[in-house]
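Show me any protein, keeping tokens residue-aligned.
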Amino acid sequence: MFDRNKFLDIEPYFDERQCNEACARIKAHPEIIYAIATALFPVSDEDAYEKRKMFTGAVISRLDEVHSYDDFQKKITVGVFLPTVLSNSADKFTFSGLDKLSPDTSYLFISNHRDIVLDCALLDLALFKSGLPLCEMAIGDNLLANQLIEDIFKLNGAIIVKRDLPFREKYLETIRLSEYFVGKIESGKSIWVAQKSGRSKDGKDVTHPSIIKMLYLDRKREGVSFADVIKTCRIVPVAVSYEYDPNDISKAREEVATISKGHYEKKKNEDVFSMIRGLRLWKGNIHISFGTPLTDRAYTSAEEVAAEVDRQIHSMYRLCDTNWFSYDYVSGSEDNRDKYEGFDSQAFLSRYSHLNSEVRSFILNSYANPVRSYLEAVR
């Protein structure tokens, strides 16, 4: 039997009292919602001001209807927040592969990680639109700047992953996460987790085996086989693709600095600014591809599971004109020109004309790398 009392500090708000108290705190500080609205409507004019007021009013009024995190996800995240984000910053949002999943079954969704907030939020939107149960999401505690931000995340189904712990405490916390993940899935709730800690900055979507090993830690002590734990989790690989990455420049600058200096020290609130850019700036076409659950055979190692997750993500990633153009451009060819016919390549390149050659090259390769991964996966 899954004992929620062991996980109160990391689990989403699940009972009515917790949710009502969190909603009351947010209602007492509507400026936090207005700040989100300002991020979504940054222009300083009367129209943007009215849209901010409408967004804030819509969220605050719906908080009275929230008595569980499922309510919050449906009424606010899917009902107000995501429609606003998509109408402001995307051409089209599509998804595929959900016909392979059952509404009566829980899963562990493992996806590539491009955006701090949107990857899982849009996955939930796809589930909602398909009539499937919504999921919980694993996030790092580095994103919890204050109590109100924690309230918003926990009302939205967040599982808090504690980072920067001493080695012994980190190991024990990893075992606890293992117990939580497997136990929660067994109890009928789906979970989303990124394929590795931190976003992909170079466009290479690679699953860290440590994520898979974490799942096995708790049940290993009970003598359960690795293969049985993987079958229990019903892992579903998920590929999230954005035509344009709003944080492509900042990611490239960070990685180039890390390569040249050996490290990169984040500035205060840098993750917050990344979240805002991810929500606000243009993303073009967005697609989420759901793969086939890993229940077809007995997996014997974390590396084997990670390889299959990668194979599915790479082969079903929805490649955009930005990807195919960048692949040809950095290769010095036009072999795939038919895949980006009509694409304004000059406008795309001009986005990065002010950058030095190292950063510019890194960005173009970050768009090209999903093509390389796809070609490797399907050959």
